[in-house]
Structures are given as structure tokens and as C-alpha cells.
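Residues determine shape. Take a concrete instance:
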Amino acid sequence: MNPAIENWNDLVAAFDCKRTSRTEIILNIDNDQSITWAEFIRHGLSFAHGARIARERVVVVIWIQGGKTMFPDRTDAGRKLARALAAYRERPVVVYALPRGGVVLGVEVARFLEAPLDLIVVRKIGHPLEPEYAIGAVAEDGYVIRNPKEAATLDTQRFSNAVEQALQEARRRRELFLGNRKPVPVENKIAIIVDDGLATGFTMLAAIQEIRKRHPQMVVVAVPVAAPDIADKVRSEVDDLVVLHTPQWLAAIGAFYDEFDQVSDEEVIALMNATSSHKL
């Protein structure tokens, strides 16, 4: 019997869990622990329901089948993703990474393909009452993609304010990460957009539309892991989608990495400073 479980911290202590942030718990379970999993879900759903009522951030509960993650870290995922893109070696390619996490993978992909690396800075549009909950995304050129059901619940001014805040942050980050570096020309070349995973797909879809305006020959999206329905949606918008894993159930990208610490602004700046717009 488990000790009394009255909150999320009790839950973490009672089961084999790792709490990675205020909004995420990772639960490693072997296939023969179905009873433990059922107990965890029973307790977890009860807490999540209560948290929603209280308008608190809801902790995401993740099950990793077999108790193993797919990637030790973003660098490993980037190297594996690079090998899956081998068909694009010795072709006119520009690699675009989505900051911040996607930059670590982008470096590995660009190095393997011997291609220049650039950034597409896209910002999630958070709900005014719950900023962690995405209702859309905006690219640095101002292109907006929205979840129509969620956006419809807000008055026009509130949504416009949320978009403007996200747009200003996207432009601020590009200047922070790249300074005065000019975008790498991609007209008549192959644009490969890289991120560390696709959960809702909002930021990737916004990035695709921004890249399309630069008239590449092809647009390719490459990610280590993606939710199946989101992968299908993205696939319909690009010329090629390279995804290593499409698990049946995906609640958080971090569940598929042993290490998924937040990438800092300083790390992104260092990675980009270590590259040039023409050679890695």
C-alpha cells in the first residue's frame, strides 16, 4: 500500500517519478507495472481536475513505455536526426533552427549536412489568463497562426494584445541571438526547419509560412518526435517531413529525453557565435 497521497509532491515520492518543472512530471514504468500505472493515473487525474478548478498550472503526467527514453539529450537527438537527413547532403541546403531547444539539434544537422545555420524565431501566443497554454503562435515577420476555438473565446483586443507581445518578444530574441547578422539567403535552395519535437505544432506551422515567403525550392521539417496528428498536419504543409518517432500518446516532448533542461539565451548565443552564416 502506498502512503497517504494528498498532493503532487506526495505522488512523486510514492512512485518512481522525476519532477522536471512546475508543469511536468516524468514517470518511468516497466511493462509489468500496469497496476502502478493505473494507480498513478487514478490519483493524478484527481489532482489535475482540482488544479484546473483552482486555475493553477496542471502538472503533465507522462508514461514512458518500458521505462526508457528515446534520446539521452538534444545533442544525441540532433545527431540521429542528421543521419536521417543524409539524402540532403551535397545539396543546396539552409538549416533553420527554432530557438531555443531546436538550436542544439540544428547545430548537429547543419554540421552533418555541411550547410549554413540560421534561426526562425517564433513565439507562442499564450492565453491571457494562463500564459503557459498556447492559443497560437506568431513568427518574427508577423505571420499569426491561431487555435480558432480558443481564440474565439477572447475579445479581439485581448487577442491582438497577446499577439503584439509575442511578436515584440520574437523580434527582441532574434536581435539578441544574432545581432546584426543578416538572414541566410534561401531562394531556390532547400530549407530544413529543425526543432526538438512537435507537440501542438503552432510554432512550426508559423515558421513554415515565414520560410515560404523567402521562396525556397523545398521546405523540409525535421524533428526527433511528434504527435501523430500534428505530424500529419505539418506533413500537409511541407515538401518533406522527417520524424524519427511518432508515439501514439504524446503529452510533453521532454518525456522522450533523459535530459531536457531549458536551453538558456546564453547557450543559444554561444552556439550561434560558434558558427558563421556559411560554414560550421
About this structure: The radius of gyration is 20 Å. Residues 27-38, 40-68 have pLDDT under 50 and may be disordered.
